[in-house]
Write a structure and sequence with these properties.
This protein has 6 helices and 12 strands. By secondary structure, it is of the alpha/beta class. Helix 1 packs antiparallel against helix 2. The chain binds benzoic acid and fe (iii) ion (FE). One of its GO terms (biological process) is catechol-containing compound metabolic process.
């Protein structure tokens, strides 16, 4: 009887003209019904779920997107990245873009310093090549990270414009280099329903220290990724599940502060 009810609902979409819409709403209904049956959802729990989603919507505005944060903290965003990424065993893995990317940052010279905050100095360097080992010259590399107070420029009026954001080009050998400071772990926003969900489920809100990278080069699939610090206490419990073992790096003591070396590997567009 239960299965025939689910069938009746999915049958109600029979006249849906758009095949993809029909596929998505039918699967949604099947999974929703199965979920409610599996946990034997009560009316009170259903009401609380509706209230939670209503509060999540009310928390959204032009800047804050609580539904995306919910998707991030439930692991849905990283599942989507995985489904939609072009896979190649030799290519660098992707990670979450997050809400703090900003376009329009001024391009800096090879080796420039992006930090206007005090912190532990780091020299980031490496190469961009393709899956066949060919260096990728003139690739656009965008980077952004938090200041030692755990905030991105844009969240924090006390940080100078463009602090800890950089835009670089690889040279003829596919190399990139810039100076910065060691990234810091930080909490995702907790002053909304997602924060309440984390408390109710016994979870912490921390993202392990990381620096974001976006790499774009003519003829290659764009790459959005991040490098995570191996010595961070949250590296195995990221609140938004963005860490992949291949993206964890070591900060090695160098000449002045730390040295962070990482090569990136892109997938040629024609193979996609
Ligand atoms: C970030 O890494 O910037 C981020 C990602 C997901 C949610 C919040 C922040
Ligand atoms: Fe981040």
């Amino acid at each position: 009887m239960n299965e025939s009810l689910t069938q009746s609902v999915t049958d109600s979409f029979a006249q849906c003209a758009d095949g993809r819409t029909k596929e998505i709403v039918s699967a949604l209904v099947r999974h929703l019904h199965a979920f409610a049956r599996e946990v034997k959802l009560t009316h009170e729990e259903w009401r609380r779920g509706i209230a939670f989603l209503t509060a999540t919507g009310k928390k959204c505005d032009g800047i804050r997107q609580e539904f995306i944060l919910l998707s991030d903290t439930l692991g849905l965003s990283i599942v989507l990245d995985d489904i939609n990424q072009h896979h190649d065993e030799h290519a660098t893995e992707s990670s979450l873009l997050g809400p703090f990317y900003r376009d329009g940052v001024k391009e800096s010279a090879f080796g420039a310093n992006i930090a206007q905050s005090d912190g532990e100095p780091v020299f980031f360097h490496g190469t961009v090549s393709d899956v066949h080992g060919k260096p990728v010259a003139d690739a656009l590399i965008e980077v952004w990270q938090t200041a030692p107070n755990g905030m991105y420029e844009g969240q924090d009026p006390d940080q100078p414009e463009g602090n800890l954001r950089g835009r670089f080009r690889t040279n003829a050998e596919g190399a990139y280099a810039f100076h910065s400071i060691k990234p810091t772990s930080y909490p995702i926003p907790t002053d909304g329903p997602v924060g309440q969900m984390l408390v109710a489920t016994g979870r912490h809100p921390m993202r392990p220290a990381h620096i974001h990278f976006r790499i774009d080069a003519h003829g290659y699939e764009p790459l959005t990724t991040a490098l995570y610090s191996s010595d961070d206490p949250y590296v195995k419990s990221d609140a938004v599940f963005g860490v992949k073992p291949s993206l964890v790096i070591e900060y090695v003591p160098g000449k002045e502060g730390y040295d962070a070396a990482r090569d990136f590997v892109l997938i040629p567009r024609e193979r996609a």
